[in-house]
């Protein structure tokens, strides 16, 4: 079942900040920090699971099990990237039903052609807006729990311009989407125009090194946004830390003086070892 706390946060006009998670370590670390929502990033999940580009290679089967594992392993509500819904209308219905059964509280669907490309990268093309509106209608009909949120994303800004992206956002809102996601606006002025034009909760995608300026949460709220996701923050930080640690090991031949780390004791606690040890103590045979 979807966590009703997320829908309630939007209803209360509470600005929602959601870090990107991509595996169970990132999910558990983020879960303990008091966020209102966690965002399962397609880029990071595909990269950590398959080690390939987020370019439509991962399938529904690849993603739903990973998404479900993360959603079940945390207490915080989760919104998960589901690309294009992995096909046509029937695929969208199947995807929504599967993601909802997996335990997420919201699903993100986008209007790209298949195979999709990662947002903020070149070459993205979109399907007709009316075709995407049908996908949104199917998604709304397919969900079982009204607390399960439908996020509709359009990638039209980069190839077709801001005006078309806004038109699509409005159309997807009319089709029943709960949250509208205009991907990769290129200035604060464009973000303000989006906020003024669309009367639905808006999602801002804050990608380090991407096409959209990264703004503070307070500023995003002022511009009319209700939520910000940071899909890349976790895997970029993890990759940098790994590169530093591995490079030290290669150069020095040991793991001393690699700088501050999470700590083995903290990691055992994060992964639930104390509970395992307590169980073994209670059931140990003399």
TrEMBL record:
The keyword Cytoplasm does not apply. GO terms for molecular function: lyase activity. It holds the Pfam family PEP_mutase. SUPFAM superfamilies: Phosphoenolpyruvate/pyruvate domain. Transmembrane segments: none annotated. It comes from the Bacteria. Keywords: Lyase. PANTHER family: CARBOXYVINYL-CARBOXYPHOSPHONATE PHOSPHORYLMUTASE, CHLOROPLASTIC, PHOSPHOENOLPYRUVATE CARBOXYLASE. This is Isocitrate lyase/PEP mutase family protein. It comes from Siccirubricoccus soli.
């Amino acid at each position: 079942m979807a966590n009703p706390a997320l829908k309630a946060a939007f209803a209360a006009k509470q600005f929602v900040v959601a870090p990107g998670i991509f595996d169970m370590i990132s999910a558990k670390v983020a879960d303990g920090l008091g966020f209102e929502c966690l965002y399962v990033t397609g880029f990071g999940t595909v990269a950590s699971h398959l080690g390939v580009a987020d370019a439509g290679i991962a399938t529904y089967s690849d993603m739903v099990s990973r998404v479900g594992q993360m959603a079940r392993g945390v207490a915080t509500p989760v919104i998960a990237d589901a690309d294009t819904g992995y096909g046509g209308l029937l695929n969208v219905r199947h995807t929504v039903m599967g993601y909802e059964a997996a335990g997420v509280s919201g699903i993100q669907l986008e209007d790209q052609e298949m195979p999709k490309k990662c947002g903020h990268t070149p070459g993205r093309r979109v399907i007709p807006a009316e075709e995407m509106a049908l996908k949104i209608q199917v998604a709304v009909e397919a969900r079982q729990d009204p607390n399960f949120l439908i996020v509709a994303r359009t990638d039209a800004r980069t190839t077709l311009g801001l005006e078309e992206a806004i038109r699509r956002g409005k159309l997807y809102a009319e089709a029943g989407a709960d949250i509208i996601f205009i991907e990769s606006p290129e200035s604060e002025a464009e973000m303000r125009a989006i906020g003024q034009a669309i009367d639905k909760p808006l999602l801002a995608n804050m990608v380090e090194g991407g096409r959209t300026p990264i703004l503070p949460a307070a500023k995003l709220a002022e511009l009319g946004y209700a939520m910000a996701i940071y899909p890349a923050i976790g895997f970029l930080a993890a990759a940098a830390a790994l590169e530093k640690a591995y490079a030290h090991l290669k150069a020095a031949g040991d793991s001393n003086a690699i700088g501050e780390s999470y700590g083995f004791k903290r990691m055992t606690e994060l992964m639930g070892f104390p509970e395992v040890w307590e169980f073994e103590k209670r059931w140990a045979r003399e």
